[in-house]
Amino acid sequence: MSNFNIQSILRENIKNLTPYSSARHEFKGKASVFLDANENAYGSPLDKNFNRYPDPLQISVKEAISKIKGVPVANTFLGNGSDEAIDILIRAFCNPQHDNILILPPTYGMYEVAAAINDVEVKHVNLNSEYQLDLEAIAETIDEHTRIIFVCSPNNPTGNSIYREDIETLLANFNGLVVVDEAYINYSRQKSFIQELTEYGNLVVLQTLSKAWGLAGLRVGIAFASEEIIEVFNKIKPPYNINQSSQELALEGLQQVDMVNKWILETTLERDRLIEKLAELTFVEKIYPSDANFILVKTKDAISIYNHLADHEIIVRDRSKVSLCEGCLRITIGTPAENDLLLESLNNYK
Ligand SMILES: *Cc1c(COP(=O)(O)O)cnc(C)c1O
């Protein structure tokens, strides 16, 4: 983007902030006796020692991610889930009761919640009937206080990818941050926006280890952005935001690219199979195209189908009260055996 300047939208208090400086941060040399951080030098009451504070910048984990994604470590932030990255973006760039963010419903709920917690106004422009961007309405709705547009692609709960050219239009014309949430990118036919980081200074790409990587319990989310934006993240994050255990296990998990790719392939094949089988059911009105590990299914009576499945101990997500998702259930792709149980139960519905 031609004359976009991060500093122009960064909050004054963040610009002027002196970040917390930890013991490990202040000492840079080589040492063997660490009496600087008030840790317990004797060890941990566990088989494994966790008595030392973890690397505040998680360099080993970031290097492993960099190898896989091809994005430099300096352009990478790790958060306690993507949710931490979303919260930090709002806190860094939006003045409470003054600035606003734009979200594009139906979409992921955390953008709005994080804004509300920070007392930041949320503007809404619904996706159109194809669940794509309404660029005209977006242009009309943003004002001089709009700091961030959140674009979820593939979108949760609808499952589709947002047209690339439309996101590029936002990136090229919006004088604020465009956050592209790619939590489901591994299941998508579209390519990631991480290759565009050098092109657009106002781009932030969110990814996560919680979905395709199968590590939701570790709470590791990723933000890729310009070095200048990453410096802002690092300035205001809690010093040790990813714990030692999560760092070690994430690093271990990141060695298993082949296993993860196998799951991704199997999940997309199961997605195709489920779409085909669900289409045969009389009470299914529409199955939306999916680039994710879930499908949005429009039914004749969502609540009653939901309850029928719950009676069989199968839980799906009821989205029927979400505007533009009337009558819809969101169904995560399970293992082949789980998907069989789902289909069997649906075949027995009334
Ligand atoms: C699941 C999900 C995330 C991941 O959140 P984590 O905090 O990293 O687990 C982010 N964005 C969307 C749209 C999601 O559906």
Identify the CATH class of the largest domain: Alpha Beta
Low-confidence stretches: none
What integer is the average pLDDT? 96
Instruction: Provide the β-strand percentage band.
Output: 5-15%
Q: Strand tally, please?
A: 11
Ligand inventory: pyridoxal-5'-phosphate
Number of helices: 13
Largest sheet: 7 strands, mixed
CATH topology of the largest domain: Aspartate Aminotransferase, domain 2
Strand numbers in spatial order across the main sheet: 1-7-6-5-4-2-3
Order of helix and strand elements from N to C terminus? HHHHEHEHEHEHEEEHHHEEHEEH
Structural class: alpha/beta
Q: Termini distance?
A: 56 Å
Structural domain count: 2
Please tell me the CATH architecture of the largest domain by its name.
3-Layer(aba) Sandwich
Query: Radius of gyration from the CA trace?
Result: 22 Å
CATH superfamily of the largest domain: Type I PLP-dependent aspartate aminotransferase-like (Major domain)
Characterization of the model:
A hairpin with a 6-residue loop joins strand 8 and strand 9. The protein has 2 domains: 216 residues, Aspartate Aminotransferase, domain 2 (3-Layer(aba) Sandwich); 90 residues, Alpha-Beta Complex (Aspartate Aminotransferase, domain 1). The chain has 350 residues and is α/β, with parallel strands linked by helices. Helix 5 crosses helix 6. The chain is built from 13 helices and 11 strands. The structure holds pyridoxal-5'-phosphate (PLP). Pyridoxal-5'-phosphate binds next to helix 5. The site of pyridoxal-5'-phosphate has 13 residues, from helix 5.
